[in-house]
Specification:
The structure is a single chain. The chain is an alpha+beta fold. It has nine helices and ten strands. The protein has helices at about 10-20, 65-80, 115-125, 135-145, 160-170, 180-190, 235-245, 255-290, 295-310, and strands at about 25-30, 40-45, 50-55, 85-90, 95-100, 105-110, 200-205, 215, 220-225, 230-235.
């Protein structure tokens, strides 16, 4: 689960709102270890089992609607055997949006291994044909990779505020350095003639390659969490994120070859090019936005490596 809001920092009105919605006293126990994107705390519900409370400051007017969309995606996928914890309640105060989910007695992994990646590949197959929410990661990836603007003036009707903000930030990447500019141009040229995708049949987790989002027990994946960005598209999006992760360790080279094969089976070379380009651009944007300038050269190098490997499979 994710870190972020410390129990001491959680506004009292958020806890009161949770208690009001679930109809039980809520006691904060501890912050959960794991990722970096949001606040997740283990709580105890009076007369019930422990749960996980995740509370985030309101980011935009549609934040609650997006959280409700994620809840629908969770319910839809759980009915099909997808291993993600049930969401017990969703709510919002004037300052925060929160959701409450089942507590899973398992540990987030510090890093992915070949065995865990193989297990995640099987889990991703459960996403096939399960698109249920109009949050199209596939079309968004194409817009990012090609530099195309949405078809309508202003924010696209199927684009979230976060996606719109990210596209604007990505558009500024070439101004960072000549090395980044050259890589961005290279990626855009690769994708210039790729037509937009025609459908988005699969559920996309969109953050499945973050190790802390994978909960394991005795070497087996028992749950994947942080499903807040889930939407529609091609499940090859999640496989592409796993490809990127595998470049961190030579021991993952073998499983990366299997990932490439599956991605190409699903979307072909042109589709894979779009997904790789979009992912590389996002991996550039994150450290640049956070001022982690020492990381950028390594991302540029890995970006070219990913492109070279994909080109070799054409």
């Amino acid at each position: 689960m994710s870190q972020g809001t410390d129990p001491k920092e959680l506004p009292a009105e958020v806890l009161a709102d949770v208690a009001s919605v679930v109809g039980a006293e809520v006691t904060l126990l501890s912050r959960l270890s794991g990722g970096v994107n949001g606040g997740a705390m283990r709580v105890q519900l009076a007369g019930s089992a422990d749960a996980v409370l995740k509370a985030l400051p309101r980011a935009h007017p549609g934040h609650l609607d997006e959280t409700l969309r994620a809840q629908r995606a969770v319910e839809h996928m759980r009915r099909r055997g997808y291993p993600t914890p049930a969401w017990l309640a969703v709510g919002a105060t004037a300052t925060h949006v929160w959701h409450l989910m089942d507590f899973v007695d398992a540990a987030p992994v510090p890093e992915l291994t070949p065995s865990l990646i193989e297990q995640l590949m099987e889990i991703i197959e459960l996403q096939a044909g399960q698109a249920s929410e109009p949050y199209d990661h596939w079309s968004y990836a194409w817009r990012v990779a090609t530099g195309q603007e949405p078809a309508v003036a202003g924010r696209d009707l199927n684009e979230t505020p976060e996606q719109s903000h990210l596209r604007q930030s990505l558009a500024r990447l070439p101004g960072y350095s000549s090395a980044v500019s050259a890589l961005v141009e290279h990626l855009r040229l690769m994708c210039a003639d790729v037509p937009p995708p025609r459908d988005a049949p699969d559920m996309v987790h969109a953050d499945l390659a973050t190790p802390s989002n994978v909960l394991v027990r005795d070497g087996a994946v028992v749950a994947v969490v942080d499903i807040g960005n889930a939407g529609s598209g091609t499940r090859a999006t999640d496989l592409t994120a796993l490809v990127w992760y595998t470049f961190q360790d030579p021991l993952l080279d073998g499983v990366r070859r299997r990932l490439w094969t599956r991605i190409l089976d699903l979307v072909g070379w042109e589709g894979a090019t779009v997904l790789v380009a979009a992912h590389v651009l996002h991996m550039l944007e994150i450290p640049i936005r956070h001022g982690r300038h020492d990381v950028v050269p390594g991302v540029v190098e890995r970006g070219y490596r990913a492109v070279d490997e994909l080109n070799a499979l054409r």
